[in-house]
Amino acid sequence: MAEKLRIGIIGCGGIAHSHMRAYQKMDDVEIVAGADIVPGKARAFLDEFGLNNVPAYESHVDMLEKVQMDAVSVCTYNTTHRVCAVDALRAGLDVLCEKPMSVTLEEAVEMTKVSKETGKILSIGFQPRYDPDMIMVRDLVRSGVLGEIYYVQTGGGRRRGIPGGTFIRKELAGVGCLADIGCYGLDMALNAIGYPKPLTVSAYASDRFGKNLKYCKEAEFFSVDDFSVALIRLEGGICMDFRMSWAMHMDTMGDTLFLGTEAGLKVKSPRLGEPWGGAWDGTIGPVYLYTDINGNHVETKVPLKAQPFDRFYAKVRDFVDAVKTGGPAPIPASQILYNQAIIDGIYRSSQSGREVELDIPEI
């Protein structure tokens, strides 16, 4: 490997800017190429960051064939995550792929298999994991203080927060609020309890706000979900209650709850009162522990760090370090495969109007 890690960026839209800003803070990283299917977009992106001599391509395949690289960030729209990640892995590169991992379970399975076959890193971009307070919640849940966990409620949701562009078109996004912010709520809860295998999903989804010009300026193009709820059965006798919304006449879809045989933990929704608040895509709200002591019901407010922290930089830095040391993947595809299986199950269940089983192969 070269002295500096050679990075290419596939997809040069909004989220790619966050990747670029993180990489450019690192002395041991060099951006060596960019690719985007929109003519001129990759060139303009690279020039924006002063990389006028770095080659730009309109095809990620051309970039992979013509440029010597060690790793890539995949920052394309959802329905192309699979092909871009698989092509890069097969080209011998490590991959940091933005969330959601893919659109369907089948795509996630293929990505995970190829990562294992090639021995290359496939890490998925869930930066909230790096928040110090998120880590505190995870460690508290895993400490055993709650006893045996049997029920989890998670999700989040915005009062008003429908994005536009590629997020709302099925052919580009695949799914809507599920893929945009729902995957964060799932990862927060599943990571805390050790990512047990999901077994079944019974779900409901709707698009009433997205297709209404009163709430969405691009209603004529809206073809995904803006609201989803699901009951998910997990291995170990755990039940998960999931709620997610891009828009609603309510301040929150509820707090995240972990119910155990010895104690319960409540993580209140972040940024309540803000139209775009309430999603688990960054910080958390106040945290409370409920238990019994000497026959008395006790409620304890858990102190938070609540300090500024660059989660996105931490995510990218962790990936860079993994590439330089040979792994493992910081947020492995083998875990997020379960996250994607649930999203796939929610979509299929809501479409069919019945509970569906999740057939997840061992990889």
The number of distinct helices, counting runs of at least 4 residues, comes to 10
User: What is the beta-strand fraction?
Assistant: 15-25%
Annotated CATH homologous superfamily of the largest domain: Dihydrodipicolinate Reductase, domain 2
Quick one: biggest sheet? 9 strands, mixed
Second CATH tier, the architecture of the largest domain: 2-Layer Sandwich
How does this model look, in words?
32% of the residues lie in helices and 23% in strands. It is of the alpha/beta class. A nine-stranded mixed β-sheet has the order 14-13-12-11-7-10-9-8-15, with helices on one face. A six-stranded parallel β-sheet has the order 3-2-1-4-5-6, sandwiched between helices. It is globular and about 70 Å long. The two termini are 29 Å apart.
Describe this structure in a few short sentences.
This protein has 363 residues and is α/β, with parallel strands linked by helices.
Task: Write the SSE topology.
Elements: E1 5-10, H1 14-23, E2 29-35, H2 41-48, E3 56-57, H3 60-66, E4 71-74, H4 81-90, E5 94-98, H5 105-118, E6 122-125, H6 132-142, E7 149-154, H7 170-173, H8 177-192, E8 198-206, E9 227-234, E10 238-245, E11 256-260, E12 264-267, E13 287-293, E14 296-302, H9 311-325, H10 333-352, E15 356-357
Parallel strand pairs: 1-2, 1-4, 2-3, 4-5, 5-6, 7-10
Antiparallel strand pairs: 7-11, 8-9, 8-15, 9-10, 11-12, 12-13, 13-14
Helix pairs in contact: 1-9, 4-5, 5-10, 6-8, 8-10
